[in-house]
Amino acid sequence: MRWTVHLDGGPRRVNHAAVCVCDLIYSFGGYCTGDDYRFNESIDVHVLNTQNLRWTLLPQKKDENGTVLKYPEVPFQRYGHTAVAYKEKIYMWGGRNDESLCNFLYCFDPKTLSWSRPNVTGVVPGARDGHSACVIGNYMYIFGGFVEEINEFSCDVHALNFETMEWRYVQTFGVPPSFRDFHAAEHTLGRMYIFGGRGDKHSPYHSQEEMYCPEIVYLDLKTKVWHRPSITGKVPVGRRSHSMCKLDNLKDLFRENIKVKFFSVIYNDLIYVFGGYNGLLDQHFNDLYTFDPKTNCWNLVKPHGKPPTPRRRQVGIVKDARLFLFGGTSPCPHAAVQEQTSLIDNNDTHVLDFKPRLKTLAILTVVEKRIDTTCLPKELRYEIKAMTQPNSISRPVNHAG
To answer: What's the pTM value of the predicted model, to 2 decimals?
Structure first.
C-alpha cells in the first residue's frame, strides 16, 4: 500500500460530492473560500480521468436558444450534498448554498452530460446538508444531516426506491446513532455503517456545544435494527468531514495472482477512514484507519509514500485498487503560531495504490532518483508525465463572438 501520486492544479473545492462511473470520476459543486454562494448559479461538474489523471470542466448545458439552463432545470451550485451511482447514472440529493437548501432529486446522465429531475412520490425527506447517502440493492439510504427548516440535527433514515422512485421513511429499532451531520456511511455484509460526524450536547438542537462520537454503529438492513458492536484495536478519534470508503470485488481483481487469498483477506470488505477534523481539539487529521466488520477491529495503517496534508471536507473515491482523494481544507502551512485557525482550500489530487504494480514502483524510483527518461519508450514517458505533471484543468471552448 503506497501513496503514489500527488498532483496540484485540480479543482479547488470543499464539501463537494463525487462518484465514479466506468473510468471517470464526476465531482459536483462544493465551494471555495471567498466566492459568493448566495445566488442560484448552475452547479459545476469536474471530471477526473482515472487513467491519465487529468481533470476536465464540463460545459454548462443550454436550451434550444443557447441560454444557459438555470435552477430548477439544473441544480444550483451547492455544498454538503450527496451523489451516488445507480445503473451508470448519477443521483444527487440535498445540499445548500448560502441562502437556501434543496430536497429535489436530480439525475445526471454521463452519456449525454445532461440533467433531469425524476418524478418522485412518497414522503420526501426535509431539505438538509451534511447527511450521508449510500446505495444498497435498488435503494438509496439517507441518514442524518442538519435540517434547517426545523433547525435541528437528524438521526433519521430515509430510503428512495430507484425502480419505483418512491421515498419512504424507514422505521428502525434499537438506539440509532446520535443526531449528527458531516459523518460518513458505508455498506457491507447487508449493513449500513455510520462513523463520525458532529453532534451537539443539546441535540437535536444546535447550541454550538459540539460533540464528536468515536463509535461505529451499523443498521442491519434486513431487521432494521441498530447495533453497536464490541470494538477492539486502535479506535480513531471522533471526527467530522472525513472520507470513508470500501474496496469491492478484489477477489476478481487479483484472481490471477497466486496470493489471491492473502489479498482478499487483507483488503476485501475492509472499511477505510481517512482524515477529518475534531473541533474540540481543533485538529485536522491525515491518518488512515481500517475497520474490519467481520472482527470489529480498528487498525491504524501507515502506507508507504508521502501522505496528503491533514485535511477535512475532501472527497475519497475508490476505483479498482486505488483510492483517489482530492480537495478539502487544511491548516495553512505558513500561518504564524498565533494564527493556527488560518485555513487553505486544496486543489490537489492524491492516489493511494492498495497494490502498486512493479511498473508503478519503477516509475516512482525513476522520478525519485531523477533518472534520464529520454531513452524510455514513449508510452512509459507519457505515464511518468501523467503521474508527475501538475494538472491544468481542460475547460470548454467558448464559441461566442
So the answer is: 0.91
